[in-house]
Specification:
The structure holds 2 protein chains of 2 kinds.
Chain A (H helix, E strand, L loop, with lengths): L4 E4 L3 H5 L6 E4 L5 H6 L7 E4 L8 E3 L5 E4 L4 H6 L1 H6 L1 H8 L4 H6 L2 H5 L51 H7 L3 E5 L5 E5 H4 L18 E7 L7 E7 L10 E10 L2 E10 L6 E2 L1 H5 L8 H11 L12 H17 L4
Parallel strand pairs in A: 1-3, 2-3
Antiparallel strand pairs in A: 4-5, 5-8, 6-7, 6-8, 9-10, 10-11, 11-12
Chain B lengths: L6 E8 L25 H5 L15 E7 L5 E6 L1 H5 L4 E5 L24 E2 L5 E7 L2 H10 L2 E5 L12 E2 L10 E4 L2 H7 L2 E9 L11 E7 L2 E6 L4 H12 L6 E4 L15 H13 L3 E4 L2 H7 L6 E9 L5 E12 L21 E10 L13 H19 L3 H7 L4 E2 L4 E3 L4 H12 L12 E2 L2 E13 L5 E7 L5 E5 L8 H13 L6 E5 L15 H24 L7 E3 L2 E4 L2 E4 L8 E9 L2 H4 E2 L1 E13 L5 E11 L6 H20 L30 E6 L23 H13 L10 H4 L7
Parallel strand pairs in B: 1-28, 2-14, 12-13, 16-17, 19-29, 23-24, 31-32
Antiparallel strand pairs in B: 2-6, 3-5, 3-7, 4-6, 8-17, 9-17, 10-15, 11-12, 11-14, 15-16, 18-19, 20-21, 21-30, 22-23, 22-28, 25-26, 26-27, 30-31
Helix pairs in contact in B: 8-15, 11-12, 14-15
Classes of the chains: A alpha+beta, B alpha+beta.
Chain lengths: 328, 745
């Protein structure tokens, strides 16, 4: 671990005054500390935000929830309002990591979890995400857990999270505080960036910009939700693929559908073409196949992750059966 | 008895059977009982001191430096740059003396030395020593090293040249009898399939760790070892010093599973650095370095050929294994070791070849040989049963041989058929659908599988000192280790039973090479070897106590710290003057040559395979085992549970991935190398069959620390086949291998 300066922020405003690109905020530290030990991350300054007053979950006037950035994953998963109204989120959280990690990991930090690409983690391997313009070792290497959608010739990393996948299906809004003291609201659909030729730039956040809350809009009554994670062992494994589904039906037809996917792309994945294939349709194998076709129309395997393409097709179809079946 | 402090020595060589064990005559009633581990409170309170935890004055912190090429040469290491980094005391290199690989278990010489030539990615080439661990790790990470790249062999292939002329590794590399090809031609039913298993890492909880400290020319090394006495010899040879000047202390060891049988690179680096700096140096391998640069279980490719007559009787068995290792390293994974005697057939071919690769050293990991060899053999037997339309248990029982078919000698004890039959009843085998892929619950395909368990029993020369103090308390000391298995507890139980002294009056001291020399822990021989040494010492002490009571030893009764003859009793302390002590030694002898000694069992597994995703989840497992006398029901059961859990990993999740461009291990942490976690381990049941083995040792016990893994994975794989009708022959059975063959959604 490289020596660094540690500072504790007394307020969000004080935190965002740290705009140097070599500064990192630290809250739970469940990802950052590991990366620092390996010198994948070598910040010069750590600004500890863990004592800021951002750990509450509040109801919004619109009937949604406003989640403080410092709410631990465990608390968020266990919150009765989340369990009752946003089952998909609670299930996604509980599918992630381990009990110990969920106790430390925070809502804001988890949105920014970095990839688990094997080569990103090893400083002896070239990696464009870790050190720009050094090359991608995962292409042509072992890439079982890496992406089949949204990749570029510079990076095929996956976003490893579960919680953010559910949040994409829920149309979450990320609230931030910027260094100039103004706050802004960023749709989660706008938060992440594709790798292109700058895979080290993962979000639209500016240096010093701090996530303060995540807002969930209300869901319509009678909504059906699920989170399904497929993995190599029953716990403490990242998703090979995952599906967060939020769907409503009326008179036997799908009226709204929000489907987000983990393990497929460099960000929690959502594609309006998938939903367009479902909207207004009566559930049927052909409709589900069409949705899967839409999802996978640009999918590209990299060798050891080729199986993800048939795997997500099967998983999505099973999820759609479950979401649209007469199980209520 | 008048005061004495001389130490008597007594030894027993197992040339003759021991029809009577004094453990059956003991009156204390502790042998076999499921006592909790005596070291448990120390471990849960953090007061058991592990190798890296000795707080020596002036301790400096070392972190090892790895090579970042897969093959080639170190041209230079910029030690000046390293020394200039914050907190760094010294960058220590010794290209000739540093060890290139770990040593194999039980060897008494040095492992391959010399680190200027890089033979695998991650090879240790230097150590950075600093005032803090963090500073050392930073400098080790950033130290400039210049290399000359070479051409290496980085991917396993049967097309590579295969080395066949190998020295034996507990089993001959090549053995042939009869004519296998002819047997196959004459057979009613044959199986000819190839199973592959991947490289694996033992993943002991405690990483390899050493603290080295010198007193003039005498080295003390606090290390994490399974076999400290032979490790001290390895270290002495490596450093070019007499073994008398090397002391190893391994009082508590956080798991080994074979990876700590021999010395690893951190020990030599710490010793050299400490000598050079004149202060104690600690070197703990980072978890990634444990993966990169200790030892792996070799990958294997196993061609299995079975030939049977129409009734299912085997007439031919072929088990041809190709494993891998570094050039110049003799160890081959002895996958066919139990194929020599698990079943009989007139024609047999059991062979082992090596492919030379630039991958980290391969060596022993829990049940070397059987653990992966039974994946091949016991899955092939399942395939044969299906081909014969026979129940797989009936097939095994039919082929359970009455004598060792290899050497034509008797088995010392063997309960394979009983384990299979008792297990079938307890598990509900009759509820299994004989036709695969016919049982479904919602999305889940359900199946059951069975496999035989076998692990050879070994005895290794071992000594232990047992002393009775004037206060009646007893101490047992030996360089034996407790690697989490329960050695402290079972040695105390043996002494307690033999001397009639309550457990709480017995102190066991282990892991120090300045005490009586024991073989240590490995190959499942630890409990029986060290336990027999304690037994032999106690037997001599009983004779002394009898003499003090002026009776024949067989008339003496020992219980609760007193010696009794008729209705006269005396506390032991009053019989021993200033104390008496005996060093007992057990040696292997003729009994292991004239009897085939092995422990047996049977594994049963029920799995559910998701018909959509191919995810396999083990629902329940049962292991039935016969391993002679059980010394402690609880620690024995724990060993079996651990072994069966290893079996889940070997069947379903564990695989070291080597990058085919450099040999580099890709998944070098516990997040990406998947051992089974709690959620993967369902209810495991263990049944211990009563058994005594009078040919094994005076305890009548057989080794069991590895038996639990042997065959466990095969039972799971066979259950996956039964559930799905899909035979995956490439371990581990990950979902991608099932996916193409699952029913349409």
């Amino acid at each position: 671990m490289k020596a660094f300066v540690y500072e504790r922020a007394e307020s969000p405003e004080a935190a965002v005054a740290h705009t140097a690109p070599t500064t990192r905020f630290i809250a739970g530290g469940t990802n950052l500390l590991d990366l620092m030990k390996l010198q994948v991350e070598t910040p010069e300054t750590l600004v500890d935000i863990s004592r800021l007053d951002l750990a509450d979950i509040e109801d919004t006037d619109e009937g949604g929830l406003r989640i403080g950035a410092l709410v631990p994953n465990s608390d968020l998963a266990a919150d009765p309002r989340v369990r009752l109204r946003y089952e998909v989120l609670s299930r996604a959280l509980l599918a992630g990591a381990s009990g110990q990690l969920r106790n430390k990991a925070t809502t804001g930090g988890n949105l920014l979890q970095r990839t688990r690409c094997y080569y990103f983690y090893d400083t002896a391997s070239p990696c464009n995400k870790r050190v720009p313009r050094t090359g991608c070792s995962a292409i042509g290497g072992f890439n079982r857990i890496l992406a089949v959608l949204g990749t570029s010739e510079h990076c095929i990393a996956t976003h490893p999270g579960d919680m953010p996948v559910a949040m994409r299906a829920l149309d979450a809004v990320v609230m931030t505080l910027r260094p100039d003291g103004r706050s802004r609201r960023i749709s989660i659909h706008e938060l992440y960036r594709l790798p292109g030729n700058t895979p080290h730039v993962e979000t639209v956040l500016e240096p010093g910009e701090l996530i303060t809350h995540v807002e969930l809009p209300p869901l319509p009554a009678g909504v059906r939700q699920l989170y399904r994670k497929v993995r190599d062992r029953a716990s403490y494994a990242f998703a090979l693929v995952s599906v967060a589904g939020v769907l409503t039906m009326e008179d036997g037809r799908i009226t709204t559908a929000a489907l987000a996917f983990g393990g497929l792309g460099p960000m929690p994945w959502r594609d309006s073409a998938v939903e367009a294939a479902l909207m207004g349709q009566r559930p049927s194998p052909a409709v589900f196949e069409a949705a899967a076709d839409a999802l996978l129309r640009h999918a590209k395997g990299q060798g050891s992750n080729d199986f993800k393409i048939p795997l997500i097709r099967r998983t999505l179809i099973a999820c759609l059966h479950e979401l649209t079946g007469d199980t209520q | 008895m008048s005061g004495t402090s001389t130490t008597d020595r007594t030894e027993v060589t197992m040339d003759q059977p021991c029809p009577i064990s004094l453990l059956d005559k003991g009156e204390q009633g502790v042998i076999g009982r499921p006592l909790a581990r005596v070291d448990g409170p120390k471990k849960v309170t953090g007061t058991a001191t592990y190798a890296a935890e000795y707080l020596l004055a002036g301790l400096a912190h070392g972190v090892l430096v790895r090579a970042t090429i897969g093959k080639g040469r170190v041209v230079s290491i910029d030690t000046d740059a390293g020394r200039a980094m914050p907190g760094v005391i010294e960058v220590v290199t010794d290209f000739d003396t540093f060890i290139r690989v770990s040593q194999q278990g039980g060897e008494t010489g040095a492992p391959t030395q010399g680190v200027k030539d890089v033979e695998y990615f991650g090879q240790i080439i230097a150590i950075v020593v600093a005032e803090t661990f963090e500073a050392a790790r930073d400098a080790a990470q950033r130290l400039p090293v210049e290399y000359e790249q070479g051409d290496g062999a980085f991917a396993f292939s049967l097309q590579h040249p295969r080395e066949r002329d190998l020295p034996p590794n507990n089993t001959p590399a090549h053995a042939e009898q009869g004519d296998l090809d002819e047997a196959i031609r004459n057979a009613a039913v044959t199986v000819d399939v190839t199973y592959t298993t991947p490289s694996q890492n033992a993943c002991a909880m405690e990483p390899h760790a050493s603290i080295a400290t010198w007193d003039n020319d005498e080295l003390t090394l606090y290390g994490a070892y399974q076999m400290p006495s032979s490790d001290a010899q390895q270290l002495a040879k490596t450093l070019g010093m007499p073994v008398e000047k090397v002391r190893i202390v391994s009082a508590y060891v956080g798991g080994g599973f074979g990876s700590k049988l021999g010395i690893a690179p951190e020990s030599v680096a710490a010793a050299i650095a400490s000598k050079r700096l004149g202060r104690p140096v600690k070197a703990v391998m980072l978890r990634q370095q444990v993966f990169d640069a200790t030892v792996r279980r070799s990958n294997t490719s196993q061609r299995m050929r079975l030939a049977a007559d129409a009734q299912g009787r085997l007439i031919g068995i072929g088990h041809e294994t190709t494993a891998s290792n570094l050039a110049g390293e003799d160890f081959f994974e002895p996958a066919g070791i139990s194929t020599h005697f698990l079943y009989a057939a007139a024609s047999r071919l059991i062979s082992h070849d090596l492919v030379r690769l630039n991958w980290v050293l391969s060596g022993s990991m829990r049940a070397p040989g059987e653990a992966v060899g039974l994946l091949g053999l016991e899955c092939a037997m399942d395939e044969l049963a299906h081909a014969l339309k026979m129940d797989p248990i009936a097939l095994r029982c039919l082929n359970d041989p009455p004598r060792d078919p290899d050497k034509d000698i008797a088995f010392s004890s063997r309960a394979l058929t009983k384990a299979l039959e008792d297990g079938a009843r307890a598990f509900g085998w009759d509820r299994r659908h004989a036709t695969p892929a016919t049982q479904r619950e919602g999305e889940w395909l359900i199946g059951m599988g069975v496999a035989a368990a076998v692990r050879s029993n070994m005895l290794s020369e071992s000594s232990a000192k047992v002393a009775i103090r004037p206060d009646g308390r007893v101490t047992v000391s030996s360089s034996m280790t407790d690697i989490g298995t329960g050695s402290y507890t079972i040695l105390a139980q043996i002494a307690s039973e033999m001397l009639g002294v309550p457990m709480e009056h017995i102190t066991v001291a282990l892991g120090d090479t300045s005490d009586a020399t024991a073989a240590g822990s490995g190959g499942s021989w630890g409990a029986c070897s060290s336990g027999s040494a304690v037994y032999v010492a106690c037997e001599a002490l009983r004779a002394k106590l009898a003499a003090a009571m002026e009776v024949a030893p067989e008339e003496l009764r020992l219980k609760n710290g007193s010696a009794c003859v008729g209705n006269f009793s005396k506390p032991l302390g009053e019989l021993v003057g200033d104390g008496i002590e005996v060093i007992g030694t057990i040696k292997p002898g003729e009994q292991e040559k004239v009897f085939n000694q092995a422990a047996y069992g049977a594994h049963f597994a029920e799995v559910a395979v998701n018909a959509v995703t191919g995810e396999t989840r083990v629902r329940r497992m049962l292991g039935v085992f016969a391993a002679g006398r059980i010394l402690n029901e609880q620690t024995a059961r724990s060993q079996f549970l651990g072994g069966m859990t290893f079996g889940i990993g070997s069947a379903l999740t564990e695989e070291l991935i080597h990058d085919s461009r450099s040999g580099k291990i890709v998944n070098r942490d516990l997040a990406e190398y998947h051992v089974a976690v709690n959620a993967d381990v369902p209810q495991l049941e263990v049944i211990l069959l009563p058994e005594r083995d009078t040919h094994a040792n005076p305890l009548h016990a057989k080794g069991l620390g590895e038996l639990g893994i042997c065959g466990a994975g095969a039972a799971i794989a066979n259950a996956v086949y039964n559930a799905t009708g899909i035979r995956v022959r490439e371990f581990p059975i990950t979902l991608d291998k099932l996916l193409p063959f699952l029913p349409a959604t």
